[in-house]
Amino acid sequence: MIRFSGVSRRFASTWALRDVDWEVAAGERVAVLGPSGCGKTTLLRLVTMEIPPTSGLVEVGDFVSGRTSSARRAVLRRTLGIVFEDVRLLPDRSVFDNLALALNIRGVWDRKQIGMRIGERLEEVGLRARAGAFPGELSAGEKGRVSVARALIGDPLLIVADDPARHLGPRHATLLVDVLKRAHGRGATLVLATNDEAVAHAVGGRITRLAEGRVVAA
Amino acid sequence: MQRVLYFLSEAGRGLWRHRSLTGTALLALVGALLVPAAFLVVLVNSLHAVHTLGDRREMIVFLRDGATAADRDSLAERLAPVSRQVTYVSKQDAWDEMARELGGSELLEAVGQNPLPASLRVRLRPEYLHYEAMDSVATAVADADAVEEVQFGGEWVRRLDRFVETLRIAGFGIAAIIALVMIFVVANAIRLTVVARRELHRVMRLLGAGRFFLRVPLVLEGILLSLLAAAGALALVYGLFLLLEGRLAVLPVFPPWRWLAAFVVAAAALGALGSALAVSRIGHEEHKR
């Protein structure tokens, strides 16, 4: 499903990733583990095609870096569930509307269906009662859980989660990893980046270790 | 339907969220649209005046003294395709009319014999009420043996035609300038909105939003902005019209609703064009190098 072939990525004069060869098969569960600044977020941003590689090739399904138009990238992203490191909820709309937007973008407009799916996902992350709240009224942990609910709302084929447990205590971190594992159980491939050894092990799949922009254990 | 409601609510939300920008753009657009809205009132009243005057454009075919009833009928028949009404004025009718206009019969009695010719007064169809057409009809009729002379106030008709033509050219000129101003104002307002929403669009793109999804609310914003501005400009002009009504004899009519609707639709179309230009780059994601 994902293949990195000799991928390097540089920001100004700093190499975030160097010569990475890495693969994730469809249906796999992978934790990308490494300390802060080792290139985890860059790796995930390459998977979502938010940024192109400086050199090498990134393939996600049929989508190939450098050969995918912006319109095709939009198609790719509608099959992904992305949990952003910095959450990125839209501040001017409620939790419900943030999740509804993700469904609207995927072409789901039926209000009954939207209400039902949002209810299920918020229930899963324990925030059903907070549907009407605005991001500014949520704690950092709650925002993170809403971000996970949004990523899962469209039943994605591939979940790309960048440190989703970062702002959470152990109880909620376990809950979120369980939610992501359940989504994996429904058929999604899961790639989760973390700097927490316990979380990586809780994912329960393969662990890819990154250090200084290089894959040290695939 | 849900999709349309979503796009409309997003457009409304955008206008409200950036209300100071919306207010500034609205003021600029109302200011720009006041000119064509006022011109619309002037144009409608000018056309109304021209129409009234045009109705009075008449062609008089003077007949020779020896012209028979058959000659007259033949002429009337030739004029039928181009005329709405042909009225025969006999020598006696012309004499009576002149006596009435001069207010007494003493002068006319002094003349003795009736020197006035009989005539046909021709009211032409509207499509013939311009100089070229009237001149060609007059030339054609003047050839007939029974015709002494044809008069239709050529110079006056020519001036009226020139006035209407000037009005039309001025209308197009003003419309073109205002159209450019509108496109410029709307495009810049929407462009500023795009800049203000860069982060929002970035998130939406990462969630999979395509160009259509990102652009439609912004184009609708441009249209809504223009509709509001057009309505505002017309309301102001109408208020002014009510204030002046009865005081200025030259502005007796306000444009009919069809003209007003056309004005609003044209403004909306220009708003759509301006905002479409402003958003044409959205969705061509900047792929950071």
How many helix segments of chain B?
10
- Taken from the alpha-carbon principal axes, the silhouette of chain A is globular
Distance between the termini of chain A: 15 Å
Number of helices of chain A: 7
Average pLDDT level of chain A: 92
Largest sheet, spatial ordering of strands of chain B = 2-3-1-4
H-E string of chain A? EEEHEEHEHHHEHEHEE
What Rg of chain A, in angstroms, do the CA atoms define?
17 Å
Largest sheet of chain A: 6 strands, mixed
For this structure, the quaternary state is: heterodimer
Q: State the low-pLDDT regions of chain A, or none.
A: none
Instruction: Find the count of extended strands of chain B (DSSP E, 2+ residues).
Output: 4
The share of residues in helices of chain A is: 25-40%
Task: Write down how many β-strands of chain A occur, each being a DSSP E stretch of 2 or more residues.
Answer: 10
Largest sheet, strands/sense/barrel of chain B: 4 strands, antiparallel
Please give a handful of descriptors for the protein shown.
A: 218 residues, 6-stranded mixed beta sheet, 10 strands, 35% helix, B: alpha+beta
Describe this entry's structure for a reader:
The complex is a heterodimer of chains A (218) and B (289). Chain A has 218 residues and is α/β, with parallel strands linked by helices. Chain A is built from 7 helices and 10 strands. In chain A, the strands form 2 sheets. A 6-stranded mixed β-sheet of chain A has the order 6-7-8-3-9-10, with helices on both faces. In chain B, strands 2-3-1-4 form a 4-stranded antiparallel β-sheet. In chain B, helix 1 (2-17) packs across helix 9, helix 7 (154-196) crosses helix 9 (211-244) and helix 9 (211-244) runs antiparallel to helix 10 (257-278). Chain B is elongated. Chain B starts with a helix and ends in an 11-residue tail after the last helix. The model of chain B has no long low-confidence stretch (mean pLDDT 84). The interface between A and B is medium-sized, with 28 and 22 residues.
